[in-house]
Amino acid sequence: MYDGRLNVSLLRSPLIAFAIALSLAVGILWQSSRYYSEMSSQYSTAKAEYEALRSAVQLARDESDTYARYSQPFAQLKVLGFLADEPRLAWIETIKTAVSALKLGDFHYGISAQREINSLDLGMAPEIVLRVSEMQLTFALLHEGDLIAIERALQLAKVGLFSTDGCQISRLRVLQNDGQPNFTASCSLSWYSATLKNAFAENDSMEII
Length: 209
What we know:
Layout: H1 8-80, H2 88-101, E1 108-111, E2 115-117, E3 128-141, H3 145-157, E4 161-171, E5 183-196, E6 207-208
Antiparallel strand pairs: 1-3, 1-6, 2-3, 3-5, 4-5
Helix pairs in contact: 2-3
């Protein structure tokens, strides 16, 4: 007959089982939370590394595209003699060869010291140093077309980037076809070159022959 008293011994096993199950659940929950935190941290690190790698790859692609875009024009300017030290000897040898081929005489030249130009006014990067040397040429001509032939010879030789600033031609005599000079010419040329900063040694000398 039930006397109204609680028999604790009957609840002991279920309570122990419940306590064990609760402890396991708490342990699993704690481990899961810790694992999630670690995985979240690793994911954030991996994502950051991936983004950095993707940025590096994109930067490499951009640099490759830039190199491909400008390498050929750069090579052409270098071959032309613009992106290099002044090839003064090549200038003179080219002119001498043209003068000899045209059978001209009384040839003289002078080259001024190289001077710097403000390249920023021309839209160039500040790392680029633009310089110019001025050349004076005097020689005898059989006819005016000899000037065009000499300029053409300089262009074909690709010994530098230059501009013809002006020429003065004087007649020596009535035109004749005896192989003797009929004119004298005095011309001014400007030779341009570009280098990077701190890569230039100033030459203050003046060459006259």
